[in-house]
Predict the structure.
Amino acid sequence: MRLDFSQPGGFYLKRLFTQTAGLLVLLFVFINSAQATTPSASAVASAHPIATAAGHEILAAGGNAFDAAVAVSATLAVVEPAGSGIGGGGFWLLHRAKDGFETMIDGRERAPLAAHRDMYLDKDGKVINGLSMNGPLAAGIPGEPAALVHIAEKYGRLPLSKSLAPAIRVARDGFAVNERYRMLAGFRLKQMRKDPETAAIFLHHNDVPPVGHVIKQVDLADTLTAIAKQGHAGFYAGEIAKKLVAGVRKAGGIWRQQDLDEYRVVERQPIYGEYKGLRITSAAPPSSGGIALVTMLNILAGFELDKMDETRRIHTIIEAMRRAYRDRAEYLGDPDFISIPTKQLTHPFYADGLRNNIRLDRTTASSNLPGAVQNSAGQDTTHFSILDQEGNRVAATLSVNYPFGATFTPTGTGVLLNNEMDDFSAKPGTPNAYGLVGAEANAIAPGKRPLSSMTPTFLETDNRLAILGTPGGSRIITMVLLGALEFAANKPVTDWVSRTRFHHQFLPDAIQFEPHALTEKQQQYLKDLGHKLKAMTRQYGNMQAILWHKRNNLISAASDPRGSGFAETRKH
Ligand code: GLY
């Protein structure tokens, strides 16, 4: 039918048509801007399919995202002992849907009370190789058990006997070794063999177990059961605590019962920032993650990255990384021990200053920035992300530091201890090549928490929400940055986890990059700008991410193809 507005009655017809069209436009705008307030499904993304299943099992049993986080953390402790465990610690970033409350549960390890600043130095003041890495002297007081109890009791709705049940079951029944386990056990084999308890549990005939070999952890199941029954005291007091302290001391460690008595989680306000309309919520100190991430994004907010060609964009991002990592080394540590200029470091005006000396036509050598001593950060760790159907969310990054932590398990506990003490600066105050001193902020002190790079993060626009994070030592923060830029560019969640990665951390002054992350042409261009390049022989990271599109209420989740994790959305 053709409408003819020129005929009698055409005026009314025209008005009716105009009004109807107007209404349709309004309806379209309304539908298009309508935001889902609760997700259409829940999602769990973790580094192991058994842990992801444990999360969904608890959600299906009526638990919320916080109960599921307890289940996933404890199950990862069983099936991914190289990455995290109840002998380690971590940061759990929580968002409660009903009131928007956000907090970071700091379950980071603490230095034993008998620890001291020079504990890893010989009489000549030289760092003794391996002392902060292997064996009981390398282990901080674990925070994960306290954090799980705290999360369950304060934010969950199920008893620990329910939320820890999947982990206890898997510890008793066993799990099958996969290729990733073999690779990490191979990396730490020499040290694992040195502790008979660790070797008996995690090796097979004192060697890397074959794929499919089933690892049962009866002692760990008993320890988890004690936590399920007695809560905090199940780990930090009584029989388990006694065995932990005795095992550590017998092997030359310095733990005392008082260390366990004094361990408490701390709730910290997350770090907030904004990047071109995107709200960032991330980890607070003693993690450096949130502050460094916000600093980098503040610097980059002054550039039109999307209008740059790819190589210039990489150069610009590298220069932002360099500057944020310099500050990380200089200013960050345990906020209960040092004063951190958080407001300054995360302020856009401060980033303006950092941005001002970035040149697009050449690199800034790190030696031309004020110096700071860089300390190492562990290579392993794990991350998981959870969204439940009420909209509660958890981003958690947990660690025992290096693969299989300190490779030491106190007899009869099943608790593989962390080597998080290596995240302290073993020798702070050592002048760098330019005579400048840094890393004092992260010096060892009794009861202090070592500086971390773990960066559990939420990103939010009006229409989209991301929950993400990754393991990867000092490269964690730059991986999350690259993921955040993918999110900002409206890319699908699979792109964030799979994109190739590059990294700069101020010192060493070189761009580290994954195989295929930079083309030959890009490498040449970056060299011409003055960059040094360090090609990695392996890929790194194991990002676990969730994306909620609020406009169409679609949830997608993805697990890094570099790992053997699993991401799954389900309606409960
Ligand atoms: N142990 C790794 C980190 O905390 O950054």
